[in-house]
Amino acid sequence: MSAQSPKPFRIGIFRALQLGDLLCSIPAMRALRQAYPAARIELIGLPGARELAGRFPHYIDGFVDFPGYPGLPEQTPDAARFRQFVSEKRDPPYDLLLQMQGNGNIVNDMLQQLAPTRLAGFCQAAALQNENFLFYPADIHETERHLSLMVHLGIAAKDPDMEFNVTAADRRHLTTLALPLVKPYICVHPGSRGVWRQWPPVYFGAMADLCISNGFKVVLTGTKGEHSIAEEVAGHMRGQAFNACGLTDLGTLAALLEGAAGLLCNCTGISHLAAALRVPSVVISMDGEPGRWGPRNTELHETIDWTTGPGIIRVHAAMGRLFDRAGQVPRPPFQDEEAAAVPGITNR
């Protein structure tokens, strides 16, 4: 009788967050795979993240739907499913379970219920830091934060570059949608999961018109639920834009974006997608955390912290530089009379 093959080392990553949060943690997952090439690595995440996880089979071997937990706002907790989840993940337990959700408040105790052989991640107080837990570094970029955790755990992690795999199937699917795409075009993405993070539609409309006056077509992007805000943007425009909200899934959105000359958006998931695809962007940060969430490559992307002094002139100038990067000639500086023609916009 032949001996059974040894079971692979099992690693779980807990990060039950949205698209942008996950993309920012991919460099750390890449480093983890390089350190554990033969391990089975599972991502425990929100159910909607399954497709994204499937795009990184070289880093993630499996995906586990997280059923929610009291105090975590991303989803409504299901107590019965959580008990089942705990039971399944305790037998057998993870050899290493990484808490990459946040500072550890709530989730560290929750993950202890899974009885992993080793639990590691972030903790919320310096006094709690040890070989397994790193005091949560609050004032650095999200990507750097997770790389710092890898380094704390003895894993070489020096590459912060983000990535996203656009497949041939994504591009074929985009073609079958027969969208009226004429290059060069710029994607304008006015939506965001949090309303407080949305730049006003009237401003997006003004900048979309600026794109058109510089020779670009404009494609409004977003989910089906963001169709109305895109229509509001279109209603503020003098020119014509194509509203693609609700027509694309994640893959076709990425295929659409990779063909764009640039992107104008809120600081939300698509800004991280543009960073991963290396598409030039202007990102409006409404939450005052551009250092944490803005794209790291400041030569390719500009993040404007609207909380430090809103003013359309700053965005206009950034769009001009985006046009330069796309090989277009920016129009003359935004004039006082142009600013006055757009309701709610001040020339500051």
Automatic annotation (TrEMBL):
Molecular function as annotated in GO: ADP-heptose-lipopolysaccharide heptosyltransferase activity
GO biological process, one term: lipopolysaccharide core region biosynthetic process
Gene3D superfamilies per UniProt: Glycogen Phosphorylase B (3.40.50.2000)
Keywords attached to this entry: Glycosyltransferase, Transferase
Region (Disordered): 328-348
Tree of life domain: Bacteria
Keyword Nucleotidyltransferase in record: no
Keyword set includes Glycosyltransferase: yes
InterPro entries: Glyco_trans_9, LPS_LOS_Heptosyltrfase
Any Gene Ontology CC annotation: cytosol
Record's protein name: LPS biosynthesis glycosyltransferase
Species the sequence originates in: Pedobacter yulinensis
